Amino acid sequence: MWRRRIPIAAIVAVVFALSTAYVAWALKDLPNPNSGLAAGDIIFLDRNGQVIEDYSPAGHYHVNLTLDQMGKYPPAAVIAAEDRNFYHHGAVDVPSTARAVWVDLTSRGLNQGGSTITQQLVKIQLLTPEKSVPRKVHELVLAIGLEQRFSKDQILTMYMNRVYFGHGAYGIGAAARTYFNKEAKDLSAAQAAFLAALIQAPSAYDPVLHYGPAKARQEYVLRGMVTTGALSQSEAEQAAAEDVQKGLHIQLSARQSKAPHFVDYVLTQLESLFGSAAVQQGGLVVHTTLDLKLQSLAQQAVAQGVRDLHWANVNNGALLAADPRSGEVLAWVGSADYSNDAIGGQFDVVTAERQPGSSFKPYVYEAALRDHKITLATVLKDELTDFSGYKPHDFDNRSMGMIPARKALLFSRNIPAVQVGQMEGMDNVIDLAHQMGIKSKLDPGLATAIGGSDVTMLEHVQGYQVFANQGERVNLSWFNSVDDGQGNVVYQRPGSDTSDVLTPAQSYLITDVLKHYQNQWGFGWNRQMASKTGTSDNGHGQIPDSWVMAYNPDIVIGTWVGNTAPNGGGGHILAFGESVGSSLLRYFVNGLPSKMRDWYSQPNGLVHACGGSELFLVGTENMCASPTPSPSPSGSPSSRPSITPLPSPTPIPSPSPLPSPQPTPA
Fold first, then answer.
1. Which residues, 6 or more positions from 25, have their beta carbon under 8 angstroms from its beta carbon?
2. pTM, rounded to two decimals
3. Which pairing describes strands 42-45 and 284-288: parallel, antiparallel, or unpaired?
4. Of 507, 552, 509, 543, whose CA–CA distance to 410 is shortest?
5. Bridging pattern class, strands 169-170 and 61-62
6. Is there a contact between 421 and 446 (Cβ–Cβ < 8 Å)?
7. I need a surface site. Which of 21, 297, 317, 354 has the fewest CB within 10 A?
8. Using one digit for the tens of pLDDT, what is the confidence trace for 253-272?
9. 3-state percent breakdown (helix, strand, coil) of the chain, nearest 5
């Protein structure tokens, strides 16, 4: 080695020089605590490259405060939420980092946290969302440099002035005013802990949409404040008991968006994908699946439909549309007016659980058809029936006697649907619904057969996507790729996630029934669709929700109307599903591009049998007789029906507004 001392010394010198140059370069961008720190934009583009929203801090709210101006509780709450040993370790919390490294190694991914507040400030201010070892090294160098240059109080001040709390509020000063209309120094311990709870994932913990999880996170922060000595146990318990929700008065920011609910949802997906720090830093371009032309049409249809149905006490509506072949979301309207606090406009009905009413029935009939328990010719009993203590009724309290399954579904009769659910077995129905995309828990009682269990519009559209795509499920998607500020692709959506749930023949049977729905109930649509209404019941003959689901090979659509209030409650409506189909959804369907008029060809695997024109799956040709229902355990209470039969099919009217003075049962 002595003989090689000159080359060794040269190598050491080069390494030292390069390291010094790297550190100097890395530290050149350290933030200035005396100036307001800015986040980068997140630009959301539609499928054609049009800007949906420039999620820019310039259009949001920011207040720069000193640490003293933040008051007693907010700094303590943020430390309890994000880094309880902040004042007792260096730039890196070695035990937490070691634990995170171990989890990443054992899980073979970069998933675990463990970052200090100093590291988080570096992430949200200086780095890209890339997850890699070199980026982690860069983060550590910057964090160490930050702690060498600035005091802990300065770092905490910068972080609290820069971190994003949701609803356009950057920094604790803006958050205090946005959420509670207060100065930061005037926040109670409960309010400060609640705001600190939002930092981890501002979209996922949005109290407008997810108050329960946000409240649970607040209680975690309060326990942390006890651990750090900021509160006594009794003070923390008193703070946990405070009604924070009552004091929330969220102020809308200067946000400009052409699809705010959609962007809010995509932000939660970005947080899950990259972590909230990367999203808070910004500097991203998100290439979404949305079509702004269809989005504008959907918003106009929802707004006009809600106005048309004002007579029915309707004050809110929602619409979700997707391409059934690719699963790409094309339009997303979560409420009639995002800015209207009177209806809780920021609450996204697309992701809310609500009873689907009779729009759930196609899953029941499909399960029984697939398993050869019935055919569309099977005669069912539409008469008052006691299903082991469960006695469902139809809204008209009448019966149609013995009718074939096709007619029972077309006229949306409740008792035959329950009979089919009993014959198939509700566990089998639920299994199929889950395979098709329903993720919510479904009660195994017979009332679920007529829509007695809650689902979200998002998963309901996923379920109908299977019908629309002839039995093949393609998981819904909302963005295809994400670029960083330099135009580098940091995420590319993998190929479509597909699975064959039904055969084309099995799904076609339901489509062949539902294609007649729009004429039977006079929707006035200008193209062929398959459709199904749904009207829920609160058990007292009152209607909380009315739906219409519709599809053809080019588009699958879910729509809803109701009456909502700021606290998530609301009143009841008089509009049945038929009213939604002939108003709100008529505006949307009739405004769709002319190219969205494709229809299905009859697939292989179907035959005409039993001496008539009815379609049968191969293997069921001889199932012409009516089955005998078997005993079944009692179901849970029924929801009411969606449709009462009209005297005769209604011809398609001209596409003019239809504000009717009286509702027509549907």
1. none
2. 0.78
3. parallel
4. 509
5. parallel
6. yes
7. 21
8. 656 789 999 999 999 899 88
9. 40, 15, 45
